[in-house]
Design a protein that fits this description.
72 residues; mainly beta; seven-stranded antiparallel β-sheet; globular
């Protein structure tokens, strides 16, 4: 499994996962599944967009997704 951090790519208006300085997942789409580190534990989740066109992680309460540690 690869670990990285969520980042928002303003050129595509979607989140991506940054694994290293020049190593990216390639852009996340609604329904993409991965694990997120919450409270020191990995939690399975998926990324979705609400009717207000805001990205969120299913089952995760977080105002800002940028920088969250994730793994695929």
């Amino acid at each position: 499994m690869k670990q990285g951090a969520l980042i928002f790519d303003e050129t595509t208006d979607r989140y991506d996962i940054r694994f290293d300085l020049a190593d990216y997942y390639g852009g996340l789409h609604c329904g993409d599944c991965f694990d997120v580190m919450i409270g020191g534990k990995w939690k399975p989740t998926r990324i979705e967009m609400n009717p207000e066109q805001e990205w969120y992680l299913v089952g995760v309460r977080s105002g800002d997704l940028n920088g969250l540690r994730v793994r695929l």
